[in-house]
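[Q] Does anyone have a clean structure-token version of this?
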Amino acid sequence: MSEKQRSILDRIGNTSLLALRKIVPSNGARILVKLENENPTGSMKDRMALAMIEAAEADGRLLPGGPVVEYTGGSTGVSLSLVCAVKGHPLHIVTSDAFAREKLDHMRILGAKLQVIPSDSGRMTEKLTKDMIEAARVIAEDTGAFWTDQMKNRDQLAAYHTMADEIWAQTDGRIDGFVQSVGTAASLRGIAEGLRRHDKRISIVAVEPAESSVLSGGPSGAHKIDGIGAGYIVPLWQESIAQAIEQVSTEEAMAMAFRLAREEGLFAGTSTGANVIAALRLAERLGPGATIVTVMCDTGMKYLRTYGAKLEESF
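[A] Here you go.
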């Protein structure tokens, strides 16, 4: 075993970049997908969870064995659960029944303590996001736990700068556009910053739920695309990040997730479906010969109950 790989955390990052073969633009442009499902918990959030915890450990905000608290729709919570389990930090998660049950179970299995906030009929809303944030703030204040506070934490940006460098190296610098859905905005912002250090001409596109198009100046609304669309302008968002914002509905995102599984063998979550739809739109605008990179944010194994229910509706 390499001295540099002493725990599962050393398997985070350096994921593959794969070209779509069947779900492709009509004009011959290429779409490449960064397979973040290859991370230990099957999600890109492993990168940011490790970055936030290690930065806090390094500067003394988080002491050895110290407790951690966070609010999360699931993937960040699962990733934090993994990191905290390996590093020996008790973890208290504030989450909701609006999110995939598989993620909540995964967090518990990894040792996290959960506080589950009831949702409005299983939908993601601005009120739910803010209720979760407030609950996490109260826990941190009452217990003295380190609050990673993902909506504001800039330590995670470094992890996404690294991801951008991976993309640049894997494409040999031949990339014309990058597309990513917006939750905390950290991944879009960090990767965009990293790519633009190499080439300022790269087109950056943000993706949000059509039902809650706040980045586009629309109203806040309820949707069911896990991990994105907080329902308000999140602190890490900057208007200068993206040249365009694409709106994708929950139904469109889920339909594309099913297509990716059946046509490409890529079993992904709904945010990935939204990413691919937006990447196809960008490819049409940029024209033949363009190379677009987007992200397979996580594995569809995190959504088996949700997808199973959708399948039953078809019969």
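[Q] Thanks! Anything notable?
[A] The first helix runs from residue 45 to 59.
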